[in-house]
Structure formats: structure tokens, C-alpha cells
Design the sequence.
């Protein structure tokens, strides 16, 4: 009996590596600390009532943001471990098995559990406020989306200490990811975690598309929407059109692994190529799913801090939509070298280059928004200015990669690695950080400290170039991605060493960023006006943080940059009469989204180990939650007028 | 070749600073294998790399200069006398310029790309008769079969200088990618498919090749050598291998196919249908077009990447 | 609640769901319908991916049964007949719904559910018969793709049956209100959508399989 338990435990828990034991200990310590703090300060009820059951888009946004920063840390540590291993030739800091797991989780986490929640954080925090709405279209569904993401991310992360992490790369191509070559539970963790959080992502796409199409304040026509909202609209469209392909690809691979089907196996008539196609039909649009919201952030920031209208609004909209459409026509450029015919390769090569045209137009429009403006060097603006050259170079190497015959050389090399890190860090991460600094006062009522922020900015920025410019050169030297080590004599050592130094500088930058947040909670400049940056769009017309119903009275929009017009261009007598304050209809909090997340987690965990009792039980709970929801007829309530008036008076708005 | 020396000179002019930086970091120029082609395919690809780099720089450099100028000129300082026009946000003329320039650049690049994409599916121009070598990627070793010479090697392949070689690729393991940077770009080895890749060495030498697609724990060590020799030396080597009486039998192959690393090996013969059987075993069975593609690969006439597509096309 | 259901069918759910007396800022009914259409779009793409996979795999029989050997003409013809008829009765149910008649709506929904159950029963029977003859999804890539595509549709239909049973209970308890109207209306979009998907399965899988 004891032997059985021991045997089980040695497979169930990952053993044999000091890093893992360190993680075990830190997980236990952190969990105990959280439990202790919550109990000691009697905060369990508060946590449940105010956060776990909330359906308020602003709080859900904040939870996404916290999760994204945590995942940025986790993915960043993965990156540092890899860079440490590669700093010198023939190092044995990590063995092949461990390195394979780390680059797999690094990619998976950074794309799906860092970039996605980061953009969703900004969707949630900003969009309803920008369009003059009181919440998203489906607040309850919004909470479900968050908890599915959260528990999906948790499922992937516990694989580090339980069962073992996935190790077939974040693209997890079969047959390598099939049972025959990858029997452990790691790959199952990967599949189920993404499938679960993927349901949430699709729901978020639907939610925000409906919100933006149906819930704009009166007078806000589509062509008066703030550019960030436009970017979210196009992104939501891409999510709805692209994510099902990922769901199918991963579900079919999971069916192969669970019941022994033959979709992508070597034998039995399977076709691995089908997975590659489905994966990238999602995979390439996914790149635009994460970059377009960043473009939206830059458009807002650049106009605000140049104190000038956004240049070429219509072209900005047109280019967003063009990018969204063409993003579906480029997926083969991820595998020019897998035997497609010359005409197929030519089509996809040219389509990939074509995306550079609307992207280039956006860059020029940002430049000319600054031109003849007055540029304030605040933190959001700094990140935006740093983005332009970084993304221009990353985009340029992207066009070079799109040249199909040349891609036969670049493919799988460090040139490619440098390229996509440059667009994803220089584009998405810079953009999300710009957005975080920009909307931070709106979320929390205080600014992040600029002086500390600059230290973080310069460390991260310089670190970025030191880390990734040498990787272009390593590509020219023939170094391929996913190598856990390399021999001496190829000349790769010095550049890898420089690259590792850059990675650590970025790590220091991240630590300073966290310090900036911690410091500012205490000492950050309080935002008492609600409009700390002299903003242009409706969210800045509200107090910081906004009351939970957002707008006591729904504003009437008369042009682009609605708040700017109200502030500076409209005489008081021109202001539309919004009428008296009326009772506000709001959704009630609910614990069910959280419970559904837990149930999905239990079910997913069961499927990972082929334990069908928890797997089915979890699904039964999910169905029960759905049934209960169907019979729920009192999910909403009214905030009475006197309560609204009290709140507004306390905020100095009456 | 004049184009070759021209392009390499151009490259060194284009990125002298960067290169100088790398040189001071202790790398020598010939270690930049992608920029040091030893055959026509790699040369074409290098030319494309340089052309595309120059074309994109036409946009990137002005963008960066413009950014620096604008950020400096229009900074928010009380004594800044630059004009301030907060409502100026449309200019059809300016916008036409920055829609137009990228369109022209992409059009130019698109034409070159299309031309070379089709050109590289044909064998390099040469006086010598093309030859075929079949390649099977295994976990984690490379098996080379010479159908005309009836010999086989592992992790080392000899080719005659100046002869177009069609490598016909498949995998008997997770998909890998066959890459010899100094000879030309890579092509995947896919289970159940036979895909062709034309390469040619114009200078004798020992070129490092690599499995470029992740295949598991042995991936980092999954390298091979391409030894390009003058044809006399090549023929001598072939005869020597043929005379060794060390055949690759099916049993030896099955041992070889098990996961693990291996030294270089040579075999004096191999079963005639070995490559065919490997393709069939991994799903080629249900691909009626595949056999034809495989045979046409042998006669060195089919377009290289056309084969992969016909192998995948199920509607026949 | 004292909201009159709009008798004019052309107003559809929008006309019915406006709860004016509370002064809602937005029109909830049409919001839900839009949201559901967006869901249908993503579901359509999900099915497209499954169809694409099936079309790639249909020749990959790996020595196992081919579509022609597997498909049973009377079986899938009956399935088609039942599902198409259920779509018609579903239309009759929404017609009664627009007239505000809860009882006859429920009546037609019961007929729809019975037809749907008949469809699911026949499909289950087809799957079990095939599996007992050795044509399981482990046999070949073709069979994996066949069971997954057709089975995903079957799961959708089963889910739709469970869903509408919940709605019938609510209709019986509450009558036709803006909320129950909207719920049944949305369900009917779902049911017609599954019908359309089946038409594609019928042609791309069954007829195409027999013709090859």
C-alpha cells in the first residue's frame, strides 16, 4: 500500500530537480501566506463579495491585469532560465528535457496567458467607459470568461510541479505531440488549459463586439468612436473568426491522445499537416488579436500627449479593418518550407507583405499626429515613442521573412526568434505597458511614479536591444531555435552571452516596474480630477476610479474626442440636456462564474490524468450552473436615485 | 561570379556598423554561414535577403529620422516656437504619399519574390547531370540513400562539386527540417511525404547541416556534414564505400530508427525499396499521388515543391 | 410584469422585449439576439474547420471501411427527414410564440423535441452498429473525422433538446413574456442553424461519400 502511494506520488509530483523543489516550497509558502493574511485581516468575505463574485467590468479588468503581470513574471523567468542556459556553449544548467519544457511554457504563457489577459484587461477597463456604457453587453458571461481564463492558466501552471510540463513547443506539432512520442501528462495540460481558456476568449470576443455595436452612448456613431474602441471591435471580430480553428486543432489532437483516434498520427491515415494548417489559421490572426489593441492604445496616447487630434482617423480605421481581413490570408507563411507549391507560396508571401502597407500607414499617421503638436514626455508617451522604431525594425524584418525563398533560410533560425520578439515585445508589451500607465489612474485613482517608471523603461528598452539584436546575427550564423545547448567553435558564444545580459536587463526593468507599482500605491500622485492627462475621450469625464455604475447620466456625444469637445469647445448653453438622474439597472453579483471556473478546472485536471470521475463530475457541475442560470429571473437590480445622488455628491460631481 | 561579389560587398556596406560590433564581439565573418554562400541556391537567397533589406530600409530609416526630428521639434516646452495646430488632422496629399510608397516597395519586392520562388523549384543551371539523394530523418540522425550509387550513409553526405543535387526528403520520426545554410534554405522532412529540395555546391568544402525543426531531446545534436568534393574524389569515395561490404539491412535500419544519437556511418548497399517503404509506412499508403511524386523525384524532373502538394492532395 | 407581447411578427423579438416602463437605456432583447448571432458565427467556423478536416481525411481509410461501405442509405435518409421536419415544427412553434400562445408553442416544441430525439436515436444506432462491425474511430483517419464531425453535430442537437426542455418549463410557468419570448426565439435560431449544418453533412459527407 505504502509502496503504491510512493510510486503514485513520484509520478504525480515532478521530482528530481532543485528548481522544482524550490517552486514547490515557494508555492506552499505563498499559498499559506495568502491564507494567513486573508484570515488574519478577516478578508475572506471581502474577497468573495467584492472580487470573486463581481460582474463589474472594471474589477474584472483589474483581475485580468494582475493575472497578466503574474504571467509576465512567470514567462519572463522561463525566458531568463533559457538565456542562462544559452549564455555559454556546452552549459549544463538545464538538461534537454527541462529546457524543452521551459521554452514550451514560455511561449504558451506569453501568448495565451500573458498577452491575451493583458489585452482583455484593457478591453474591460476602457471600452465601456470610452463608449459611455454602464457595463459590457453580458456582464455575467464576462465573469465566466475571466474565470475560465484564470483556471485555464492555473491548470497550465501547476503542470510545473504536478505531472510535468508540456515539452513539444508552444505550437505542439504532431506527431511529436502525439502519445507515441510524448506519453506524459504535460501535453494534456497544454491542450486542456488552452481549450478551457479559449472558451473564455471567444466569449470575450462576442461580448465586446456586441457591447461596441449596441451600447454606445447616443450620438457616438461608428466613425466617432475612439480609436482604441475601434481596435477592440476589429480584434473581437478576429477572435470570433479565428479561435474556433484553434479549438478544433487542439480538440482533435486531444481526441487522438485520449481515445486513440488518427487525425494527426503517423499511421492509421493521420495527417499531421492538417494540424499545422488549423493551428496557423488561428495562429496568424492571433498575432493581430494581440497587436491591434496595442495599436489602439498608441492612437489614444499619441493624441492625448501631443495635445492634438489623431491624424488621419479614417485611414486609421481603414487600416485596422484591412489588417483584420488580410490576417486570415497569410497563415501559410509559417510553413513555406513544408512543401507547398510555388504558386501557393507566392500568394501567401505577397499577402504577408501586403499587411505591411496598412501597418506602415498607421506609423506615419502616428508620426503626423505628433507633428505640429505639443509632446509631453510622460510614461505612456515614452513607451509609445519607443515602440515606433522598435516596431518599424520588427515589421521590416517581417517583410524580409515574407520573401518566401529567403524564408527557406530564416525559417526556424534565431532571425525569426528576434523578429517575432521584436514585434511582440516592441508592439504588444510596449503597448500594454503604455496602456497600463495611461489608464492606471482611471483604475486606481493614482498615477504611477514617473521617475521610477523611467528607470524601468530604460532598463527594459536597452535590455531589449541588447537581448534581441544579437539574435538576428545568430540567425545569420545558422543557430536554430529550441536548441538547449550548442558546441564551441561556431562563433555563437559571444553573441549569446550579450543576449543573455540583455535579458537580465529586461528582468531588472520588470522588477523596477513592480517596484514602481508598490511605491505608487503609497506615494503615487492622487488623481482627484478624474482627468489627470488632459484626456480627450469619455473615460476622462468620470471620477477616478469610476463609480460602479460608471455614468450617473449617459452622455450625449457630438463628435470625435467627445470629452475634449465638452471641455474646451462647447459653451455651457450648448450642452445637451441629459435630464434628471434615473434609477440605474445593474446586474447582480454571482458566485456561479467562479464555481464554473473551478468545475472546469476539476474536469480538466481529471482529463489530464484520464481520471474520468472528476472529469465527468466537473462537467456535471458546469451543466448544473447553466441550468440554474436559465431559471434565474432576478439577476438584476436597480440602484435608487438617492443612492446615485449620494455617490455622486461624495465624488464632488453634483 | 560578379553578382556574388557585388552582393557581398553591398551587404558589408549596408551593415558595416552592426558587423563591426559583432566582429569586436569575437565572431569572424565566415561564421555568418547564411551570408557566406557556397552554391547558387544560397546565393540567390542571399541576394533576396539583401534586396529586401534595402527596400525595407527605404521606409525604416526615414521613419526613425522623422520620429527623432518630430519628438525634438515639437516637445512641450514653454519656449518652443514651433507651430502648434491641434485641429490639423487630415491631409489627402500626405496620406497618398505614405499609402503610395509602401505599395510601390511591396510591389517591387513581390515581383522579385514570385520570380525566385518559381525559379528555385527548378534545378540550378549546370553542365553536370543532376543527381538524386534520398534523405530520411530519424530520431536523431540523418540517413542518406544514394539510389544510383546504391550506397547509404548516416550523418554525413558526400556530393560532387558543381552538380545539382535533388534531396528527396521524408521522415520516419516527428517532422524535421533539412538545412545546410551555406548551400541553401531548408525544407521539411515530413512523415508519409516525399518532398524535393535542389541544392548545389560550387566550392569544395565541409558544410554543416542541421535538423532545424524541434524533434525532442536529441534535437540540439541532430547535425550532419555535407562534404562537397570534385567529381573524381567523389567517385573514388563512392567506390571505396561500395567495396566495404557493410550493407544496410532492414534489421540495421530498424536499430537505426530507434531514438538516440549516432556517429557517421557508411553502408555499401541498402534495400532498393527502403525509401519507398518508409514513405508508405507513415501514411503514404492512402496517398495515391505519392508514389508518382516519389518516382518523379528520382528522375529529377519534377518541380521540387510541387511534389509536396501533390502528396497532400487527396481528391484524386 | 405587465408587458404586452407585440402581436405583429414583423417586429420579432425586438418589438417584444423592450421594457419601456423601466426606462432601459438599451434594448436588451436585440442585444441578446445579436450576441447569439455572433456565437452562431463562431460555431459555423468551428464546423467549417471540422468539415475541412473531414474532406482532407475522407480518403485516408488506412485499409478500413470506405465511406461507400459504411454509409447506410435508409438510415441517414430517415435522420435527414426527421431533422428537417423538426425544423418545420420549430417554425410552427415560433409562429405560435409570436401570437403569444404558450400552450400551443409548448405543443409544437414537444413535437420538435420528439423528432429531435428520433434523430439522435437513429444517429446513435448508426454509430453503435458501425462500431460493432469494427468501424470505430480508432480504425482510420477517415473514421476519426467522420465520428467527430457528425458526432459534434449530434452533441449540438442533444444539447438543443435539453435546452428547450428547460425553456418549455419556463413557458409553462410564466407564459409568453419578453424574456421567455427572447429565450425561445434564440433557441429557434440555434435549431435552424443545426438544420443547415446537417444539410451540409448530408451532402458533403453522405452523398459525396456514396458518389466517390
Sequence:
Amino acid at each position: 500500500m505504502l509502496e503504491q502511494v510512493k510510486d503514485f506520488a513520484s509520478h504525480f509530483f515532478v521530482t528530481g530537480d532543485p528548481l522544482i523543489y524550490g517552486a514547490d516550497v515557494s508555492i506552499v509558502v505563498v499559498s499559506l501566506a495568502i491564507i494567513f493574511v486573508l484570515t488574519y485581516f478577516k478578508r475572506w468575505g471581502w474577497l468573495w463579495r467584492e472580487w470573486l463574485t463581481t460582474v463589474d467590468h472594471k474589477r474584472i479588468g483589474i483581475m485580468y491585469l494582475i493575472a497578466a503581470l503574474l504571467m509576465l513574471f512567470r514567462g519572463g523567468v522561463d525566458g531568463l532560465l533559457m538565456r542562462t542556459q544559452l549564455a555559454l556553449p556546452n552549459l549544463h544548467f538545464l538538461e534537454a528535457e527541462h529546457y524543452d519544457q521551459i521554452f514550451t511554457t514560455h511561449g504558451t504563457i506569453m501568448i495565451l496567458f500573458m498577452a491575451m489577459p493583458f489585452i482583455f484587461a484593457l478591453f474591460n477597463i476602457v471600452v465601456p467607459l470610452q463608449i459611455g456604457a454602464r457595463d459590457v453587453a453580458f456582464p455575467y458571461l464576462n465573469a465566466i470568461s475571466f474565470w475560465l481564463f484564470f483556471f485555464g492558466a492555473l491548470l497550465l501552471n501547476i503542470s510545473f510541479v504536478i505531472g510535468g510540463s508540456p515539452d513539444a513547443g508552444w505550437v505542439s506539432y504532431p506527431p511529436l505531440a502525439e502519445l507515441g512520442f510524448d506519453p506524459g501528462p504535460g501535453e494534456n495540460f497544454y491542450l486542456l488549459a488552452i481549450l478551457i481558456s479559449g472558451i473564455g476568449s471567444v466569449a470575450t470576443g462576442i461580448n465586446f463586439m456586441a457591447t461596441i455595436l449596441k451600447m454606445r452612448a447616443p450620438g457616438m456613431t461608428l466613425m466617432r468612436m475612439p480609436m482604441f474602441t475601434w481596435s477592440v471591435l476589429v480584434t473581437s471580430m478576429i477572435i470570433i473568426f479565428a479561435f474556433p480553428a484553434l479549438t478544433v486543432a487542439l480538440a482533435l489532437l486531444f481526441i487522438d491522445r485520449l481515445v486513440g483516434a488518427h487525425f494527426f498520427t503517423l499511421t492509421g491515415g493521420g495527417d499531421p499537416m492538417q494540424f499545422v494548417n488549423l493551428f496557423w489559421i488561428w495562429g496568424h490572426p492571433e498575432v493581430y488579436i494581440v497587436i491591434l489593441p496595442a495599436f489602439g492604445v498608441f492612437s489614444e496616447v499619441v493624441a492625448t500627449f501631443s495635445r492634438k487630434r489623431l491624424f488621419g482617423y479614417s485611414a486609421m480605421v481603414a487600416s485596422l479593418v484591412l489588417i483584420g481581413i488580410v490576417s486570415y490570408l497569410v497563415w501559410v507563411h509559417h510553413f513555406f518550407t513544408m512543401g507547398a507549391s510555388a504558386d501557393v507560396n507566392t500568394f501567401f508571401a505577397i499577402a504577408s507583405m501586403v499587411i505591411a502597407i496598412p501597418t506602415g500607414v498607421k506609423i506615419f499617421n502616428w508620426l503626423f499626429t505628433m507633428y505640429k503638436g505639443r509632446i509631453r514626455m510622460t510614461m505612456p508617451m515614452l513607451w509609445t515613442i519607443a515602440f515606433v522604431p522598435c516596431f518599424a525594425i520588427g515589421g521590416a524584418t517581417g517583410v524580409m521573412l515574407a520573401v518566401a525563398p529567403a524564408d527557406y533560410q530564416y525559417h526556424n533560425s534565431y532571425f525569426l526568434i528576434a523578429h517575432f520578439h521584436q514585434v511582440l515585445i516592441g508592439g504588444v508589451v510596449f503597448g500594454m505597458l503604455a496602456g497600463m500607465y495611461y489608464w492606471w489612474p482611471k483604475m486606481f485613482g493614482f498615477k504611477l511614479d514617473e521617475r521610477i517608471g523611467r528607470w524601468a523603461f530604460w532598463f527594459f528598452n536597452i535590455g531589449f536591444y541588447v537581448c534581441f539584436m544579437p539574435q538576428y546575427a545568430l540567425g545569420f550564423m545558422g543557430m536554430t531555435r529550441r536548441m538547449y545547448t550548442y558546441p564551441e567553435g561556431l562563433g555563437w558564444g559571444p553573441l549569446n552571452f550579450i543576449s543573455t545580459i540583455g535579458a537580465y536587463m529586461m528582468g531588472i526593468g520588470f522588477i523596477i516596474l513592480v517596484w514602481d507599482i508598490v511605491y505608487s500605491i503609497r506615494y503615487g500622485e492622487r488623481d482627484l480630477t478624474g482627468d489627470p492627462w488632459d484626456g480627450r475621450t469619455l473615460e476622462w469625464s468620470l471620477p477616478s476610479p469610476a463609480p460602479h455604475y460608471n455614468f450617473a447620466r449617459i452622455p450625449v456625444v457630438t463628435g470625435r474626442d467627445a470629452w475634449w469637445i465638452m471641455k474646451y469647445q462647447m459653451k455651457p448653453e450648448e450642452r445637451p440636456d441629459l435630464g434628471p438622474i434615473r434609477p440605474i439597472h445593474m446586474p447582480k453579483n454571482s458566485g456561479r462564474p467562479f464555481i464554473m471556473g473551478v468545475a472546469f478546472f476539476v474536469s480538466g485536471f481529471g482529463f489530464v490524468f484520464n481520471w474520468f470521475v472528476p472529469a465527468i463530475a466537473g462537467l456535471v457541475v458546469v451543466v448544473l450552473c447553466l441550468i440554474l442560470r436559465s431559471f434565474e429571473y432576478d439577476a438584476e437590480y436597480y440602484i435608487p436615485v438617492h443612492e446615485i445622488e449620494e455617490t455622486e455628491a461624495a465624488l464632488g460631481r453634483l | 561570379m560578379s553578382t556574388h561579389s557585388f552582393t557581398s560587398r553591398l551587404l558589408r556596406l549596408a551593415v558595416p556598423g552592426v558587423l563591426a560590433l559583432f566582429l569586436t564581439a569575437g565572431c569572424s565573418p565566415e561564421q555568418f554561414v547564411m551570408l557566406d554562400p557556397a552554391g547558387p541556391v544560397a546565393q540567390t537567397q542571399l541576394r533576396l535577403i539583401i534586396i529586401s533589406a534595402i527596400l525595407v530600409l527605404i521606409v525604416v530609416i526615414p521613419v526613425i529620422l522623422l520620429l527623432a526630428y518630430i519628438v525634438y521639434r515639437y516637445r512641450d516646452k514653454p519656449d518652443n516656437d514651433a507651430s502648434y495646430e491641434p485641429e490639423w488632422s487630415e491631409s489627402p496629399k500626405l496620406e497618398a504619399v505614405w499609402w503610395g510608397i509602401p505599395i510601390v516597395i511591396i510591389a517591387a519586392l513581390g515581383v522579385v519574390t514570385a520570380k525566385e520562388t518559381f525559379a528555385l523549384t527548378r534545378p540550378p543551371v549546370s553542365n553536370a547531370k543532376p543527381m538524386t539523394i534520398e534523405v530520411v530523418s530519424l530520431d536523431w540522425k540523418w540517413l542518406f540513400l544514394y539510389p544510383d550509387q546504391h550506397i547509404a550513409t548516416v550523418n554525413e553526405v558526400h556530393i560532387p562539386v558543381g552538380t545539382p543535387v535533388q534531396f528527396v526528403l521524408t521522415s520516419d520520426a516527428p517532422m524535421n527540417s533539412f538545412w545546410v545554410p551555406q548551400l541553401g534554405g531548408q525544407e521539411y522532412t515530413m512523415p508519409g511525404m516525399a518532398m524535393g529540395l535542389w541544392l548545389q555546391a560550387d566550392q569544395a568544402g565541409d558544410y554543416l547541416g542541421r535538423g532545424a525543426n524541434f524533434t525532442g531531446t536529441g534535437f540540439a545534436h541532430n547535425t550532419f556534414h555535407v562534404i562537397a568534393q570534385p567529381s573524381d574524389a567523389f567517385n573514388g569515395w563512392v567506390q571505396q564505400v561500395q567495396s566495404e561490404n557493410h550493407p544496410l539491412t532492414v534489421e540495421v535500419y530498424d536499430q537505426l530508427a530507434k531514438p538516440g544519437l549516432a556517429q557517421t556511418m557508411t553502408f555499401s548497399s541498402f534495400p532498393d525499396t527502403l525509401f519507398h517503404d518508409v514513405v508508405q509506412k507513415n501514411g503514404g499508403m492512402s496517398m495515391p499521388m505519392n508514389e508518382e511524386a516519389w518516382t518523379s523525384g528520382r528522375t529529377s524532373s519534377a518541380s521540387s515543391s510541387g511534389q509536396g502538394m501533390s502528396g497532400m492532395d487527396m481528391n484524386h | 410584469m405587465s408587458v404586452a407581447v407585440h402581436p405583429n411578427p414583423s417586429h420579432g423579438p425586438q418589438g417584444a422585449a423592450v421594457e419601456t416602463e423601466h426606462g432601459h437605456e438599451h434594448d436588451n432583447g436585440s442585444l441578446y439576439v445579436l450576441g447569439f448571432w455572433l456565437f452562431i458565427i463562431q460555431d459555423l467556423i468551428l464546423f467549417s474547420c471540422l468539415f475541412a478536416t473531414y474532406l482532407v481525411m475522407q480518403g485516408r481509410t488506412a485499409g478500413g471501411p470506405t465511406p461507400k461501405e459504411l454509409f447506410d442509405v435508409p438510415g441517414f435518409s430517415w435522420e435527414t427527414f426527421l431533422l428537417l421536419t423538426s425544423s418545420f415544427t420549430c417554425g410552427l412553434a415560433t409562429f405560435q410564440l409570436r401570437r403569444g400562445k404558450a400552450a400551443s408553442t409548448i405543443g409544437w416544441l414537444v413535437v420538435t423535441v420528439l423528432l429531435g430525439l428520433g434523430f439522435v436515436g437513429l444517429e446513435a444506432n448508426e454509430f453503435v452498429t458501425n462500431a460493432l462491425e469494427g468501424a470505430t474511430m480508432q480504425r482510420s483517419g477517415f473514421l476519426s473525422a467522420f465520428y467527430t464531425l457528425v458526432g459534434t453535430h449530434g452533441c449540438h442537437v442533444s444539447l438543443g433538446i435539453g435546452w428547450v426542455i428547460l425553456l418549455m418549463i419556463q413557458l409553462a410557468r410564466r407564459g409568453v413574456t419578453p424574456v421567455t419570448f427572447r429565450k425561445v426565439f434564440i433557441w429557434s435560431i440555434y435549431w435552424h442553424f443545426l438544420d443547415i449544418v446537417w444539410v451540409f453533412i448530408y451532402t458533403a459527407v453522405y452523398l459525396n461519400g456514396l458518389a466517390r
